[in-house]
Amino acid sequence: MKKIIITGVTGQDGSNMVRYLLNNTEHIIYGTVRRLSVTNHENIKDIKDERFKLINLDITDQQSIINNVKSIMPDYIINFAAQSFVGESWNTPIQTFTTNTLSVMYFLESIKEYCPTCRFYSAGSSEEFGDVEYVPQDIKHPCRPRSPYGASKCSARHLVKVYRESYNLFAIHCILFNHEGIRRGKEFVTRKITSNIARIKKEIDNGEKVTPFELGNIYAKRDWSDSEDFVEAVWLMLNMKEPREYVLSSNETHTVKEFVELSCQSAGLKYQWFETINELDTKLIVNGEVIMKISKKFYRPAEVDLLYGDSTETRQILNWKPKVSFKDLVYKMVMNDIKLLDNYNPNDNNLYNIENTL
Ligand code: GDD
């Protein structure tokens, strides 16, 4: 039985990784949370297993990492915690670097000093490719970030390489293209779309007034997969003989506009686009009513226009491939958001014991 520290367990990927490991291994999992006066355990509230323990750990505090690494002596550290919202990184560039880059250095230093056999996973991002030079992008594509977020992940990647090569650590950095699912935060475009389409579907069905929602650049292209598929691949990487860099992607690209269209189709809404030469005029119409408009507010200072991954090599090395298609992913997210509206309970508050709370 091994000991695994997973950071970011209240987020999408961390909570999916906890589920995957509880279902597929015998290991003990230490999920890290930051001390907050209000907890947000929505994504893990249904996990009831003695092998899953929550601990306080602030990834921006080196001493907090050292204390936990020394006391647990983990076999694996899977670092999913991040300031993961690209759009926010222009407002909080320093916090983005502290959270996404310095924390990686703290973990690597702690592993080097106190448990050098611990295997470390660093979550990279296709935002590292940024202003892309070619399609599809594989591991050889250069770092050309377009945001403080992308730059923070490039720096983390370089640090992981340096520590792997200098100290012979089993430290891997995997570049993940976009990955979504039912536990996705609503600030990301996919869940923003599916939660709004679900709400609008209800409003229409109930004969209520429809309140439109707003999006930014719907012509951006992304390579979207299911987070639940990716966590399986991450675990395989961590158990390979040698550490290295990887790419995970669906090997397809779709516009945000296509995501909106598939969401409407999944909800059974018949839609029409209103478009002029000015993309800010674009509107989405259902039953003669506008349900979505474009707002400049959601455009970014610098956009990554096209992400389209090539994970052929990773698939061969790991003998892995994703199970969920783009269409099935959108359908699953829309259906889940419709179901959540049906079952909404404002008093539903499930709290955890935190092991190392003073
Ligand atoms: N969030 C958001 N909100 N994005 C919008 C909106 C909107 O209203 N309208 C259009 N978009 C466009 C963004 O400009 C971007 O081109 C695209 O939708 C996807 O945006 P996000 O869902 O916020 O994700 P992201 O691609 O910026 O970043 C995600 O994927 C990265 C991997 O490529 C995040 O999960 C990152 O943490 C991850 O590293």
In short:
The chain has 358 residues and is an alpha/beta fold.
Q: Could you give the order of the helices and strands?
A: EHEEHEHEHEEHEEEHEEHEEEHH
- Mean pLDDT, to the nearest integer, reads 96
Q: In whole angstroms, how far apart are the ends?
A: 27 Å
Q: Give me the count of strands.
A: 15
Q: What spatial order of strands do you see in the largest sheet?
A: 3-2-1-4-5-6-11
Shape by Cα distribution: globular
Number of helices: 9
Rg, please?
21 Å
Fraction in helix: 25-40%
Going by helix content, strand content and strand pairing, the class is alpha/beta
Bound compounds, please? guanosine-5'-diphosphate-alpha-D-mannose
Oligomer: single chain
> Segments where pLDDT lies below 50 for 5+ residues?
none
* Strand content bin: 15-25%
Major sheet summary line: 7 strands, parallel
Structure description:
The chain is an alpha/beta fold and 358 residues long. Helix content is 37%, strand content 17%. It contains nine helices and 15 strands. The strands form four sheets. It has a seven-stranded parallel sheet with strand order 3-2-1-4-5-6-11, sandwiched between helices. β4, α3 and β5 form a beta-alpha-beta unit.
Key terms:
globular, 9 helices, 15 strands, binds guanosine-5'-diphosphate-alpha-D-mannose, seven-stranded parallel β-sheet, single chain, 358 residues, four-stranded mixed β-sheet, 17% strand, alpha/beta
